[in-house]
Amino acid sequence: MSDLTPNTSLSNEGEQVTLGPLEEYRIESLPANAYYIPNFLTPTESSTLLSHISSHPWTTLTHRRLQPHPAPLTASGHLLTSKSLPQWLDTPIVDRLLQLTFDLTRANSENKKGIFTISPHARPNHVLINEYPPGTGISPHEDGGAYFPVVCTVSLAAHIVLEVTPKRDIYSSSSSSSSSSSSSTSTTTTATLPPGNEENGNGEETVYKIYQEPRSLLITMDEMYTSHLHGISAVSADEGLSSTTVANWNLLDDDTKKTIEEGNGTVKRETVRISLTYRDVLKVKDAGRLFGGRGFK
Ligand SMILES: O=C(O)CCC(=O)C(=O)O
Predict the structure, then answer these.
(1) Contact, 191 vs 227, CB < 8 A?
(2) Which of 15, 172, 194, 241 is most buried per CB count within 10 Å?
C-alpha cells in the first residue's frame, strides 16, 4: 500500500464505503490495466440510483434499452449539449472516481495521479446506462476514439460476466512485423499474445472473464482499452466460472465465490442488470454557443 494514497472513507446514512489505493484493486491476471472494486456503492446508493434511472426515458434497441446522459453522441463522436451530467449521476460516483489514485512509484509519473488527471476535462462528462434482461448481452466491440481511454463501469441490481479478448488482427500484424510498432499511431502492442490467450486446440480463442457483482466498479484503461474487445454473452446463466477462469476471483466477495462454487461454476441471471459507464468524451460542443462559432470545449 502506498503512503501517497491513504484510505478514503465516505459515509452514507450510516453505511460506509472505504476505498483503498487503486493498486489494491488491480486484476493481476489481465493485461494492463484493469481494476475491480467490489462494494463501490452502498445498498442505499444503489437503490437511489435505480429509482432515478427508472424515472428517465429509455432508448429501445432490438434486445436492450439504454439511456445516454447528458445526451447521445453525434455520429462523428461529439457530445453536443449545453448540459453537464445530472447531479444524481455525479454524486457520489464521480466524486469517488476522482479520489482513486495510482501508486506513484508504479505509475512512474507525477502527472498521472488519478484516473482522469490527464483526460481533457479531468473528469467523466458522459454516462451510458445499459439495461440487460437475463438472456441479453452486447457483442464484442471496442469503445474507439471518441473517448479518453479510461472506462469506469458501475454494475447495479445483478451480476454480469464481461468477456475480454485481444484484437487478433493487431496481434497477428505485429507478429509478422514486430519492428513496425513504433510507426503505429493507434496502439501500443506487443508481438506476442498475453499469457493465457493462445488459441486452444480447436482454434478458438481463450477469453478473459471478469465477474461484475452488483454495486461494483470496473475500470479498464491503457492496453485493455486500445488492444482488446469486450462483450457480454446473451445467456440466461453464466457457466464455467471458477478460481481459474474468473480473472478477478481474488477480489470477489466471499458470498459470491460460495454461490459460484455451490452452482458448480454456473450462476443464473435471475434479474435485470443495469450498468452505468462513465467516460470522458474528447470533443464537446456547447449546443447553446454553436452559432457564435465558439462551441468546442
Ligand atoms: O454494460 C457493460 O458492462 C458494458 C457496456 C459497454 O460495453 C459499452 O458501453 O461500451
Answers:
(1) no
(2) 241
Atom in ligand 1 nearest the alpha carbon of residue 155: 3
Q: State the closest ligand 1 atom to the C-alpha of 143, by its place in the atom list counted from 1.
A: 10
| Spatial distance between the Cα atoms of 200 and 198, rounded to a whole number of angstroms | 6
> In this structure, what DSSP letter does residue 104 have?
H
Per-residue model confidence as pLDDT tens for the chain (297 residues): 333 333 445 444 457 898 988 999 999 999 999 999 999 999 999 999 999 999 999 999 988 899 999 999 999 999 999 899 999 999 999 999 999 998 766 555 566 689 999 999 999 999 999 999 999 999 999 999 999 999 999 999 999 999 999 987 444 544 433 322 222 222 223 223 433 344 444 455 658 999 999 999 999 999 999 999 999 999 999 999 999 999 999 999 999 999 999 999 999 999 999 999 999 999 998 877 655 555 555
Residue nearest to atom 3 of ligand 1 (CA): 275
User: What residues does each domain of the chain span?
Assistant: 8-180+188-195+203-292
**pTM of the predicted model, to two decimals?**
0.84
CATH number of 8-180+188-195+203-292: 2.60.120.590
The answer to whether the CB of 128 is under 6 A from ligand 1 is yes
SS3 129: strand
